[in-house]
Amino acid sequence: MRNDQPGRISTLCVYAAMLFLIAPLLAVIPISFTPKHFLSMPDGDWSLRHYQELMSSAQWHDGILTSALVALLAAGLATVFATLFCIGIGYAKSRYGAAFIGIVLAPLAVPPIISALALYFLVTPPTPSTRCRGW
Q1: Who's near 48: CB < 8 A, 6+ residues apart?
Q2: pLDDT exceeds cutoff 60 at 132
Q3: What Rg value do the Cα atoms of the chain yield, rounded?
Q4: Which candidate in 10, 80, 82, 135 could, as Cys together with 6 as Cys, close a disulfide (CB 3.0–4.6 Å)?
Q5: Stretch 29-39: mean pLDDT, rounded?
Q6: How far is CA 29 from CA 18, 26, 116, 131, in A?
Q7: Could you give the C-alpha distances from 57 to 11, 14, 48, 64, 133, in angstroms and in order?
Q8: Which whole number is the average pLDDT over 109-123?
């Protein structure tokens, strides 16, 4: 008889991953209630100062709207391009299909900082001071 229910270890790993992802919020939320001008842990006094500034500032509103617009456009374009790629790779039946899928999925496997460093070294010319460090 086959059991499709996850085991105790799998369930424990899922809960540990969820805790690992949510734990930073447990530190950030109290920091946002500090009465000080700079963000730090509140030392007894609590304030909504930063939330009041967020709600009353036109700069923050513009920034939030711009971020939301960019996020929606990026998500929409990514969805369209991913759908077209999947349809195309499904119909192509090319022997290079697996290679194309690997190229498309590579950014998910390579950490963004490695990609950023590679792009940085790609666009910066070597100088005498960087040559001695291996560039």
Answers
A1: 33
A2: no
A3: 24
A4: 10
A5: 85
A6: 17, 6, 30, 45
A7: 44, 40, 14, 11, 46
A8: 80
- Here the tokens at position 100 are 């194309």
- pTM confidence score: 0.56
Structure tokens at 69: 């617009």
Amino acid at 119: L
Residues 6+ apart with CB under 8 A from 97: 89
Amino acid 58: pLDDT: 92
Tokens of residue 119, six digits: 């792009």
pLDDT-based confidence at 84, cuts 50/70/90?
A: very high
